[in-house]
Specification:
Alpha-Beta Plaits; 2 domains; ten-stranded antiparallel sheet; 7 helices; 10 strands
């Protein structure tokens, strides 16, 4: 019961932040621009990552999110994927990556709906929400299917030092517009966090790993000059959970 209350309280906290923005819900259009949820959950100590019940709950949650955003905003191409950490120091860490029409659609429209409440209840039986985060990644851009369908991902989060570094992180253009930037293959995506009251300089980098990279340590990947000296860096190598 305590865990369920904690889970619901975390969602309620984010609802307050989004309501303060007073932004209208996103409507369906032919040129719908989406944002990406890349949130972190922690697996309860008494739950195995291989549990069939857990996998069933994760699959249901993904289907519920996809169905809701498709009907609510016309985001019919949305895909939600679960990943778990391969690093021995964070065996309980779970990432959830998927597409919404807006932050509001996720945290107000979905969470406040019957299907949203069902989803929260399912997840509360096995997971604690650590960080619910949204990023300026439109999954229709730059072949982001390469990211959301990856078997293995490298994830780096950190904070840019100044506007010049923001421009370099977003592909060297220097516009600092906070929109996503990725290479033509879609295997590398960088974006700014867009949650209400979040730090404007917080960024995420998502890198699709192929089989030749799968054995690399996260710290080796994080040392790449591509990241331009982000501060307060956290890194993960993730494996997709097949559900």
């Amino acid at each position: 019961m305590a865990r369920s209350c904690y889970y619901l309280a975390a969602f309620a906290f984010f609802l307050v932040l989004v309501l303060a923005e007073s932004s209208p819900p996103c409507s369906a259009t032919a040129t719908l621009q989406t944002i990406t949820e890349a949130s972190i959950f922690l697996l309860f100590a008494n739950t195995s990552i291989d549990s069939p019940t857990l996998h069933s709950h994760l699959a249901t949650a993904a289907r519920n999110c996809e169905a809701f955003t498709a009907e609510n905003s016309g985001n019919a191409d949305a895909r939600f994927t679960w990943y778990h950490s391969l690093q021995p120091d964070t065996p309980d860490l779970i990432y959830y990556i998927g597409s919404w029409a807006s932050v509001r659609e996720h945290l107000i429209d979905f969470v406040g709906s019957p299907i949203g409440r069902e989803t929260v209840g399912l997840l509360a039986s096995a997971l604690d929400p650590a960080h619910l985060m949204h990023w300026a990644i439109d999954q229709a851009d730059c072949n982001n299917r390469a990211i959301e369908t990856a078997d293995r991902l490298f994830v780096i989060r950190g904070f840019a030092k100044d506007d010049g570094q923001i421009g370099r992180l977003l592909g060297g253009g220097g516009d600092g517009d906070g929109q996503d930037d990725c290479d033509p293959s879609g295997s590398v995506t960088v974006a700014r966090r867009i949650d209400p009251n979040a730090d404007d300089n917080e960024f995420i980098g998502l890198v699709r790993l192929d089989s030749s990279q799968s054995g690399q340590d996260a710290k080796v990947l994080a040392a790449s000059p591509s990241w331009g000296g982000l501060t307060n860096v956290t890194v993960q190598i993730l494996q997709r959970i097949d559900v």
